[in-house]
Every structure is written in C-alpha cells, then in structure tokens.
Amino acid sequence: MDYAAARTKMVDNQIRTTDVTSHSVLTAFLSVPREAFVSAEMKPLAYIDEDMQVAPAANGNPARYIMEPSPLAKLLQLAAITKDDVVLEIGCGAGYAAALLSLLAGSVVATESDETLLAKGSEKLSELGYDNVAVVSARLEEGYPAEGPYDVIFVNGSIEQIPDALLSQLREGGRMVAVVGYGNAARARLYVKNGGITSYTEYFNAAVKPLPGFRKVAEFVF
User: Are 33 and 100 in contact (CB under 8 A)?
Assistant: First the structure.
C-alpha cells in the first residue's frame, strides 16, 4: 500500500475540506505516518476517516483511540501552536497526536495513565525520531505540574469537566484546547489565561472519544 499517497488524500479530502488552513498543521499531517501508530492488522485502514482503537476498554475505563483526522486537525489549528511553545498533552495514547505536536511546538510533555500505552507510545516516538517529546506517567486529570507552567495544554479526547489542576498549569497568556461533553453534543473550547483569570470560547461540535479520569463525581440528590 502507498501510505504516502493515502496520507495526502487524507489531508486533501478529510482535513482541508473542514476549514483547516494552517500551513504548519497541514504539513504536520502530511509528515507523520499514522500507520506507524496502529497495530499491523489496522495499518491498511490507517487513513480512513474514523477514530482508530489502540487499546480496549478495561478496568472501568473507556477504550482508547487515535482521534479522527478532521477534528484532531481542527483542534490543533485552534491551539495556534508555534515553535516558541511548550505544550502539555493530556492522553498520549499511541503517540500519534504527540508526534504532530512535536512538529508544531518547541517541546512537548505527553502524559499517559495506561502503562502499556505509555511504553508503546514512548517507544514509537523515539523510534521515529520525535525527540522533543517526553512521555510521562501521570493521572490524566492531574496534568504534570513538575514541568509547568505551559504555553499550551492539549486534551487528546473528550472530557466531562475541566479540573482546576489543569487550568493552574497554564502560563499567563497560555491557552488550552479541550472537547467538553460526550457524543454529538460535545463542544470544542479554547481556554485563555489573562490576568490570572481563565475564560473560554466555544467553537464547534466535536464528537470525539472520551478520556478516562474526567467524569464528574455523582452528586446525591434528595
């Protein structure tokens, strides 16, 4: 299979057609081999317009996926990442989004709570030469304050709520991109910290797969 040709078709037919115009984002998607981050049997399907499962549901946590190309590209464009930025990725998974981020940012800290995914993602990123990414073990909802604050926080999946712990790791003037909510009602948000206060704007619907660890605690109702 000609993966380079498939990659170009993905960018032309799935990403450019959904209002993604950022040169750096398009170039990153043309450069990173999506097929390298999925299992051998999934490689021929690596460029279809769908989420790609990289780990099954287990221990009460949802299955993990590489995000569908179009919403992933739109979220990265919304983040407006430059080579001056230090980025925190929440939910490294197989490492595909971290590879894209590595081409956009100066450096990337990618957190992962699943130890099997952490090992696979870290190994693949190193093997492919994405040397400005550090994959670290952490509870996703806690971020990684040891290397903060960050210019950009990218949440690689949908979540139910934004923990204060993540917002506190944004640098003044920093921004965070996250999809809040589940299913077709979920919305992409851009959070920006100014004067110590973080506010957000909603931009578009994004039905992306959920990350573990961000469910609201059930409240008792009389």
Answer: no
Task: Output the domain CATH number for residue 75.
Answer: 3.40.50.150
Q: Is 143 helix (H, G, I), strand (E, B) or coil?
A: coil
Token pair 């097929």 is found at: 35
Extract the tokens encoding 50: 């769908």
Q: What is the CA radius of gyration of the chain?
A: 16
Spatial contact of 81 and 66, defined as CB atoms under 8 Å apart:
no
Model pTM above 0.90: yes
Helical residues (DSSP H) of the chain, grouped into ranges: 3-10, 23-31, 69-79, 96-104, 115-127, 164-167
Q: In which domain, by residue range, is 119 found?
A: 3-205
Cβ neighbours, 10 Å, residue 187: 15
Digit-coded pLDDT (tens) for 142-179: 999 999 999 999 999 999 999 999 999 999 999 999 99
